[in-house]
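step 4 of 6: structure.
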Amino acid sequence: MTKKAKTIDNPLAGHAGFHLRRASSVIMADLSERLAELDLRPADASTLILIGANPGVTQSKIGEALGIQRANMTPMAARLAERGLIAGAPVDGRSIGFRLTSEGETVTAGARAAMAQHDARFLGALPADQRRDLIALLISIADKRP
Amino acid sequence: MTKKAKTIDNPLAGHAGFHLRRASSVIMADLSERLAELDLRPADASTLILIGANPGVTQSKIGEALGIQRANMTPMAARLAERGLIAGAPVDGRSIGFRLTSEGETVTAGARAAMAQHDARFLGALPADQRRDLIALLISIADKRP
DNA sequence: TATTGTTATACTCTATAACTATA
DNA sequence: TATAGTTATAGAGTATAACAATA
């Protein structure tokens, strides 16, 4: 009879922040799924890719670039090192510079491919100029962090 | 080639997904901080606002609109009900329709204001047409959920 | 059979405080 | 004093499986 199949009113639908959070959730889920095949979390993959591009980089620098706190870098680096994906050499008495092992290079190559496919799925259809505008906008948001 | 203490190379900087995740993290932190004054989490506030706009709505419908699983709606609804912000009346034998209590109305008004200020902070400078485009893009991303 | 709600559990990201060691 | 790393803990969102009661 009066089947209430109607969509309910969502006052948040006009808020860009609402859609930003939802979109982020969806892409995180997709990225997690892709990286699970490599037994990596999104943060793991980002860290590997960053180390690959910056051999000898320290945890602090990685965290700074990725927005990850020092305290949260420690267990991640330990996990990646234990798996033999990264190896560290002392920079000075308190810092360790990390580089990818040969196995880490292989896994990181897979992570890069997964990231690229992931990005292409969600934003591959976006023209380059619009992509640039979007990234600039997102950076301006992230830079408003207190 | 003076490469000292500079910003490290971030291969992810060209990926929109990377910036999307970071932007989402920043706005979530801001929203959490604003709503903490009302003793609400972001999901609480969204739920209250949705109930306010749809008196008698059920948990399932709320979760559907907000992207929250049924299993995660239960403790939230219980918490809001225990605080006296929402009250439920049976729709049928298995569903409960929720409405805001008078105290819930007051708190929800504060949540709406916080949400509006929050959105204005991060996207208030964005022209209306660009905002529409951004929202449409974010919705297209969220709709790609498997 | 399908839907609604519940319970239990687990994962991931994020955050802070307090601590050690080194610069 | 400041920096790098560690440890412990907590909060929030998200997810699945299994279950009961109802439609």
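step 5 of 6: annotate
 - Strands of chain A lie at 86-90, 96-100.
 - The first helix of chain A runs from residue 16 to 36.
step 6 of 6: archive
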